[in-house]
Design a protein that fits this description.
Elements lengths: L1 H15 L10 H4 L3 E12 L2 E13 L5 E12 L5 E13 L4 E12 L4 E11 L4 E3 L5 E6 L2 E6 L1 E4 L4 E4 L3 E5 L8
Antiparallel strand pairs: 1-2, 2-3, 3-4, 4-5, 5-6, 6-7, 6-8, 7-10, 8-9, 9-12, 10-11
Length: about 180
């Protein structure tokens, strides 16, 4: 009986110990170095404003080019300092080292020069390639000149000023009868 109890308690002890001593957690990587609440940030490039951001909170981490934002709105400007794009989203991951910006939750973008609106829950902007993309299964809505198109597999090029969908697409076009105006 003692052998059975000893064996049973040994088995229970062996399987109940789950602490992994070999995994090192770097607190500097998981804890923000700086947190800005109700922040307003302006970035300049070549003595001209390039972007303005207002956010409920912004977090920056030590030894990282990443910034995280919550409930933010922004305005981006072209090389001449003219407003090019305005938008807002619930969450933002900005990696300035890679020039990648990931937007999440209730995204609204308006491109001034093209007079086009984008609505989504997930979008990714690559500044180096000037590509705006949605996830393969994520719905994106585009509105321009009375036309509304919704679809998945969204991709847009800032260089060619074109966009496409690879998945299912639906849309509406509001046509105005000019003879009745």
């Amino acid at each position: 009986m003692k052998k059975v109890l000893f064996l049973l308690s040994s088995v229970l002890l062996f399987f109940s110990c789950s602490i992994k001593y070999d995994e090192v957690v770097n607190v500097e990587e998981t804890t923000p170095e700086l947190i800005f609440n109700n922040a307003r940030m302006t970035r300049y490039k070549n003595d001209k404003i390039s972007i303005e951001i207002s956010a409920e909170s912004l977090e920056q981490y030590k030894n990282s080019s990443e910034t995280y934002g919550k409930n933010l709105s922004f305005s981006a400007y072209d090389k001449e300092g003219q407003l090019s794009t305005q938008g807002s989203c619930g969450l933002l991951l900005s990696d300035t080292g890679k020039d990648i910006y990931e937007l999440y939750d209730n995204i609204e973008l308006y491109n001034q020069s093209e007079k086009i609106n984008f609505f989504a829950n997930v979008l990714k902007w690559n500044s180096r390639t000037e590509q705006l993309t949605g996830g393969r299964g994520d719905m994106v809505s585009v509105e321009k000149d009375g036309a509304r198109i919704r679809g998945t597999g969204f991709s847009a090029s800032g260089l060619s000023k074109t966009f496409s969908f690879r998945g299912t697409v639906t849309g509406e076009i509001d046509s105005k009868d000019e003879s009745s105006e």
